[in-house]
Design goal:
Blueprint lengths: L14 H14 L4 H22 L8 E2 L1 H8 L3 H13 L3 E2 L6 E3 L33 H16 L5 E3 L1 H8 L3 H13 L4 E2 L5 E3 L4 H22 L5 H16 L6 H14 L7 H8 L4 H12 L5 H15 L3 H27 L10 E3 L2
Antiparallel strand pairs: 1-3, 2-3, 4-6, 4-7, 5-6
Helix pairs in contact: 2-4, 2-7, 3-4, 5-7, 6-7, 8-11, 8-14, 9-13, 12-14, 13-14
Length: 362
């Protein structure tokens, strides 16, 4: 993806970049309430995790990763990263020879890395989802923005005007930036050399390239992650698939996305190679074709898709990581064919009315 050019060497989405963007807003006089919100969000995340660690509700050695924790809290990685840094400074988290942080033991010992799927229960919370005690403007607009981008990229290449989007949603630029940062984590948008937010186009060639990448990398990540997956999580995933196969008409858009996330995110998250997982994460753009297709026509998942998912999960439950990896590769190859067919259908549909902040690039 195109990265910002300039004197700063900070990675996009880093705390340094967020601070620099907030400072720019201060200079221009733009409302920075969302930056204040982001600062409050990392403090709330920090406080909730600190309480759970101190009370012994999080197992010592648990490996905390930014992406899964961000999904649990319903935020981008930026406030999660800052919360982790503060917990590390306070001695509650430790670094180790791997990605993420280890939860420190209360006895001061060196716990062994515990890699299990991160969930509300693993983080010591009773309910789901874990609530943040503030109304989030970025969260309020996130799903609408994601839906707009997901539809738009199937019809062309667009520049997203941050200021116009803020006016459209009635929020600050910072809130829009927070939501767009989450979409960047998913590979749906990127920043140009001149710091413009860009999205699309989702072409057949782009779909093929992303599926080729995923077909090479996801099976390897699954094989590496499989020994650390819990039987309980896999059993729950299989039960959900069995219900979906028995009653496909009951599977709505949200349920389908949860099923997809289980296989393509949760089952891979224990792979120790961080760069491998980040590369896979940025190749998920074709999934938006399927999401847009299902939403546009109010469809339910095809039985073949659910059966392929079930095959992978069954192999994982049986402890056969290689067979699971082969089944995942076959699923991705079949998924490429289905996605290209859907892209053709979307191409003949009239272009939808997109909001004014989406500017087509010739």
């Amino acid at each position: 993806m195109t990265r910002r050019a300039g004197v700063s060497a900070s990675p996009p989405g880093s705390a340094t970049e967020a601070a620099a963007e907030a400072a720019t807003d201060d200079i221009t006089g733009t409302d920075t309430s969302a930056e204040g919100e982001t600062r409050l969000r990392y403090r709330l995340i920090h406080d909730q995790l600190k309480s759970a660690i101190v009370r012994g509700r999080i197992a010592p050695g648990l490996v905390l990763l930014e992406g899964p924790v961000a999904r649990i809290f319903g935020t981008s990685r930026v406030p999660v990263r800052k919360a982790f840094e503060l917990l590390h400074e306070g001695g509650l988290l430790r670094t180790f020879e791997g990605r993420g942080y280890l939860v420190a033991g209360t006895d001061g010992g060196e716990p062994q890395p515990l890699r299990v799927p991160l969930s509300e229960a693993a983080l010591g919370f009773d309910g789901t989802p874990v609530p943040l005690a503030l109304p989030s403007t970025s969260e309020r607009i996130y799903h609408d923005l994601e839906a707009t981008v997901s539809i738009g990229i199937a019809f062309g290449h667009f520049r997203i005007d941050e200021t116009e989007a803020a006016e459209t949603f009635g929020v600050s630029r910072g809130a829009v930036r927070e939501a767009l940062s989450r979409l960047r984590d998913l590979g749906l948008v990127e920043k140009s050399t001149y710091s413009h937010w860009m999205c699309g186009p989702l072409t057949a060639r782009a779909v093929k390239h992303d599926y080729e990448l995923r077909s090479l990398l996801e099976p390897a990540a699954l094989a590496a992650s499989a020994p650390l997956l819990s039987q309980a999580m896999l059993g729950s995933a299989l039960a959900e698939l069995e219900r979906a196969i028995a009653e496909p008409d009951s599977v709505d858009f949200d349920a389908l996305q949860r099923i997809e996330d289980t296989l393509h995110i949760d089952c891979l998250q224990n792979a120790p190679n961080r760069k491998l997982l980040e590369t896979i994460g940025h190749a998920h753009m074709p999934l938006t074709v399927n999401h847009a297709f299902y939403k546009a026509f109010d469809l339910h998942p095809e039985p073949s898709t659910l059966l392929e998912h079930r095959t992978v999960i069954r192999h994982l439950l049986n402890g056969d990581a290689n067979a699971a990896a082969d089944a995942l590769r076959a699923h991705l190859q079949a998924g490429q064919t289905r996605t290209l067919q859907r892209l053709k259908v979307l191409a003949v549909l009239p272009e939808p009315d997109l909001p004014g902040f989406m500017h087509r690039i010739a």
